[in-house]
């Protein structure tokens, strides 16, 4: 997979969460991303290929979503939820189109 186009923010439950490209995840050199709860910012390591980028972004978006709805998902739950959400979106284009109907202005 090639290098992805960078996404600058993720909208979730009415919040706009900045997505920041970082050289290294502070204190977690092996991680591809993190969600900073205090600033509600997603950091994703630069130079990831598309699959790693997408996985990291979805994982951190699940952490963010948990924060927004008041559930502190652990790492295992976050991984499983992000995999489930990816499958739901990737494997159901008609459903996604139905959900997005009227929202194609971007
Ligand atoms: Zn995590």
Polypeptide structure, described:
The chain is of the alpha+beta class and 106 residues long. The chain has a single domain (9-101), classed as Zincin-like (2-Layer Sandwich). Helix content is 42%, strand content 20%. It contains 3 helices and 4 strands. It has helices at 50-69, 75-90, 93-100; strands at 9-12, 15-22, 33-36, 41-45. It has a 4-stranded mixed β-sheet, covered by helices on one side. It is globular, with a radius of gyration of 14 Å. The chain starts with 8 loop residues before the first strand and ends in a 6-residue tail after the last helix. Residues 59, 63, 75, 78 line the site of zinc ion.
List the helices and strands and how they pair.
Blueprint: E1 9-12, E2 15-22, E3 33-36, E4 41-45, H1 50-69, H2 75-90, H3 93-100
Parallel strand pairs: 2-4
Antiparallel strand pairs: 1-2, 3-4
Helix pairs in contact: 1-2
The structure holds zinc ion.
Quick gist of this model?
The chain is of the alpha+beta class and 106 residues long.
The CATH architecture assignment turns out to be 2-Layer Sandwich
Averaged pLDDT, please? Answer: 90
How many beta-strand runs? 4
List all distinct small molecules, including ions and cofactors, that are bound in this structure.
zinc ion
| CATH C-level name | Alpha Beta
What is the CATH topology? Zincin-like
Shape: globular
Helical content band: 40-55%
Strand arrangement, largest sheet?
A: 1-2-4-3
What keyword list fits this structure?
alpha+beta; Zincin-like; 3 helices; binds zinc ion; 106 residues
